[in-house]
Design brief:
Chain B: Its main location: membrane. The complex is a heterodimer. Chain A is α+β, with helices and mostly antiparallel strands. Chain A contains 14 helices and eleven strands. In chain B, β1 and β2 form a beta hairpin. Chain B has a domain of 229 residues. The longest helix of chain B has 26 residues. The chains are: A alpha+beta, B mainly alpha.
Chain lengths: 484, 328
């Protein structure tokens, strides 16, 4: 019976804590309106002292309610630290030493319908001993509330409070909606039409990047009939290599993209030469090959986690300038990504339509036996397709990583089904259809946030995938003969 | 390196709820794939639906039997929704549709907008729905030791759960044994071997496929219940990797056999714990941290799946002639 007593006491203590938390929640509006009384007693787990440096802040929804349970990762010297917002939306973390830290917001943990207002999920903070430095993530509909301070990192204006006391984190509390941490938000004040246009732009960018990442899977399906479930992990590979190039080996971003593309191409070649060419020679069935790609996906995913951990990794830590074009905003980085993706997709289309190699590839896709009979080296075409697919997937991974501002071990595998949705919608084996399908998927994913909670937006794309398979299994540009 | 305790851990995992849950899910997948030749890549979705159905209806105050019925009903409805439109299409379409549908369930389940029902990405805590199941136990409360294994008799990760779980596995095996010898099972095998031949005999292939999908899905849902009764309902713990593990288990043990899925599950979990234990004991912490050891284990699972499907698609118990893996 002795065992029973402590839990009882525990419950009581928890009740007291709950009441305290409620009181704090009630007191919050006071803090937000600038009264900011000293509240060192409940400043969370980290209290700055002469030898303690803290990073903290408060996250609130667009409506001003505290965002509870949002997870943030703080990376810098030492192991990454995670912090979670409490019932008042407040979070703080004790960092091991003074220096520069990157705070990453886990978007998946945000309340429904919320996203960072400036579309970025990382902040760079310089922690100092004896102080709490703020890292602010104003929430709202993506793009609706204008961008961060143009040119500078948001923290430049956020951590203005240097008074060495615990209320620094309270002072850093800026309720979303007040424009104190922003400049130039006038022209995108969140009017309904602007939000739609902004989402359409985001959908086009996302769709184009998705098309780039998916075109390789489509080529492989077209020439060999294989649904490659490991394609998402080739995408991740590109992003991770770019991260390692920039953050570990300190290469410029342009060079990092090249390194990632070369590595992706090499991975594609290796997968074909090491696994799939031998399987084709052994005449292993296409379904068995598909299950091989599933095992490969599982092995690659775990390998990435083994080497890179589970945290989101920022390829570039600086936040790029946001440009305002008419009623919408686009970051310079996204614009470059869009341009690169567009040019590369155009080049792929030209190669397929206008060159001998492209004609040969299409011939193999149509009928391998006939292609072989007319003197086309089918195996070397397929090898080329695998190398191209790996390189394009890697490029897509880098650009997606730049667009989402971080890359994780599972970024690509999370996109895998969206890529399948895109190429199924456009027509399996039809590269142009893949582009159209990806644009539709991108637009649906972004525009569905108008009516659906933010964390359900990928689900909407998968619903499309299923509906397309039911209504028009060959897709928009596919040929009906491909269905069984 | 303590081999005694490692061995105990291996055996404990092999008789534990995870192995039971995967065995049930793999038996269900065996009805899909081994008997009928359907490529269901969404078995985790059936498990997650079963888990949600059981937990949510228990939290709503329903008794155990009703909650299990809700879980089964959820799986039946899901199988019909998936099967009616897709079973007329070619096999790889079913694979993509099922994997997408399972992801939809996971994404919707972890969405914060439904957190009053599903608990969002935190899921539903075990204590909120385990009471009625442990209350149904005929055994006295307390802890019970059998050799080196000590578990509580009824609570959470209990002997009661193990007994019920293995009884379910035995019943499922009996069901598969009887089905394989029934006219119904012979039609399924016929569909697996040559769909058009069966159709030409006047059988309703579509209807048989649908029945197989429902039956296997219900077993998946039961597996999901066992899985969550040992821990909690957490949408991300029943994601795509669970489906892939189930496939590995089925192919390891042998598809189209009665005991293949069970043997596969025992070996899969036993081997995984053994490999992790060996890596942890033999490789210094500085080279592989505890978390990395876990990942290394999954890398091996992926490689095993690749090797199995290429070199021994019939698994340990299967008959190669019986297993025609073809797109249909």
């Amino acid at each position: 019976m002795q065992v029973i007593a402590p839990p009882g006491a525990h419950v009581r203590r928890r009740l007291v804590l709950l009441v305290l938390a409620l009181l704090t929640a009630l007191a919050l509006p006071l803090l937000a309106s600038g009264v900011a009384p000293a509240r060192a007693d409940s400043a969370g787990p980290c209290t700055p002292a002469a030898d303690v440096a803290c990073i903290g802040g408060t996250i609130r929804t667009a409506a001003g309610d505290p965002a509870v349970g949002v997870v943030l990762t703080i990376e810098g010297s030492g192991d990454p630290i995670t912090a979670t917002t409490d019932d008042t939306g407040r979070w703080s973390a004790q960092v091991p030493e003074a220096g520069e830290y990157t705070v990453t917001l886990d978007v998946a943990t945000l309340p429904a319908g919320e996203s960072p207002r400036d579309g970025t999920t990382t902040r760079t903070v310089t922690a100092e001993l004896g102080k709490t430095k703020g890292a602010l993530f104003p929430l709202g509909a993506a793009g609706a509330g204008g961008g961060a301070t143009s040119g500078a990192t948001p923290t430049a204006s956020a951590s203005t409070d240097d008074s060495a006391s615990a209320d620094a984190s309270a002072a850093a509390t800026v309720p979303p909606g007040s424009a104190t941490d922003e400049t130039g938000s006038g022209e995108t004040g969140g009017a309904g039409t602007n939000r739609v246009l902004q989402l359409i732009l985001a959908g086009i960018i996302f769709g184009t990047l998705l098309a780039l990442a998916a075109v390789g899977a489509n080529l492989i399906y077209g020439t060999t009939g294989l649904s490659n479930f490991a394609h998402g992990d080739l995408v991740t590979l590109g992003g991770l290599i770019a991260f390692a190039s920039v953050q570990w080996w300190h290469l410029p971003v342009g060079v990092a993209i090249l390194v990632a593309v070369v590595a992706g191409g090499a991975a594609g070649w290796l997968l074909n030469a090491g696994i799939f060419a031998p399987l084709r020679r052994k005449r292993i069935g296409i379904t068995q090959q598909m299950i091989v790609t599933i095992g490969l996906a599982l092995a690659l995913l775990s390998t990435y986690m083994l080497f890179f951990g589970a945290n989101p990794l920022p390829i570039v830590r600086t936040i790029s300038t946001r440009l305002t074009i008419g009623p919408v905003q686009i970051s310079e980085q996204s614009l470059w990504s869009l341009l690169i993706a567009g040019v590369v997709l155009g080049a792929v289309a030209w190669i397929l339509q206008g060159t001998r190699v492209g004609r040969a590839t299409r011939a193999v896709a149509d009928n391998p036996a006939l292609a072989a009979a007319s003197g086309i080296k089918v195996e070397s075409i397929i090898r080329g397709v695998w190398i191209t697919a790996g390189a394009l997937a890697a490029l897509g991974g880098v650009l997606v990583g730049l667009y989402l501002s971080t890359i994780r071990f599972n970024t690509g595998s999370a996109l895998l089904l969206l890529m399948f949705a895109a190429i199924t919608l456009g027509g399996l084996g039809s590269p142009l259809g893949g582009l159209i399908g990806a644009l539709i998927i991108g637009l649906v994913v972004e525009l569905s946030t108008l009516v659906l909670p933010n964390d359900m937006r990928y689900a909407s794309a998968l619903v499309i995938l299923i509906v397309v398979l039911l209504v028009r299994p060959q897709g928009i540009l596919g040929r009906a003969e491909r269905i069984g | 390196m303590d081999f005694g305790s490692l061995f105990t851990n291996v055996v404990a995992e092999m008789i534990g709820p995870t192995a039971i849950a995967y065995a049930l899910a793999a038996i269900g997948l065996n009805i899909h794939f081994g008997l009928t030749g359907l490529i269901n890549m969404g078995q985790a979705g059936f498990m997650l639906l079963g888990a949600y159905g059981f937990a949510i209806s228990t939290i709503a105050g329903w008794p155990v039997w009703a909650a299990v019925l809700v879980a089964i009903a959820a799986a039946v409805v899901f199988a019909l929704l998936l099967g009616i439109p897709t079973l007329k299409l070619r096999g790889d379409y079913l694979a993509i549709v099922t994997i997408a549908a399972a992801e939809i369930i996971r994404i919707v389940g972890r969405s914060t907008s439904l957190s009053s029902f599903t608990g969002g990405s935190n899921g539903l805590l075990g204590n909120s729905f385990k009471e009625s199941f442990s209350g149904a136990s005929p055994f006295p409360d307390g802890r019970f030791s059998l050799g080196p294994f000590t578990y509580s008799m009824n609570d959470s990760n209990s002997w009661w759960l193990r007994i019920v779980g293995w009884a379910l596995v035995a019943l499922a095996c009996l069901l598969v044994y009887l089905l394989m010898r029934s006219p119904w099972g012979r039609v399924l095998k016929g569909i697996r071997e040559d769909e058009d031949a069966v159709r030409s005999l006047g059988k309703n292939v579509y209807g048989y496929k649908l029945q197989a999908l429902v039956t296997g899905g219900v077993l998946g849902a039961l597996g999901g219940i066992v899985f969550t009764l040992a821990s909690s309902v957490q949408p991300d713990s029943l994601g795509r990797p669970v489906t892939f593990n189930t496939w590995t288990i089925l192919l390891l043990g042998g598809a189209a056999t009665v005991f293949g899925p069970v043997l596969g599950s025992l070996l899969f979990w036993g081997a995984l714990i053994l490999v992790r234990g060996l890596l942890r004991g033999l490789v210094p912490e500085t080279i592989l941290s505890t978390q990395q050891v876990e990942q290394a284990g999954w890398v091996l699972v992926g490689i095993t799946l690749m090797l199995l499907i290429v070199f021994r698609p019939q698994g340990l118990l299967g008959d190669k002639k019986e297993l025609a893996i073809n797109v249909r």
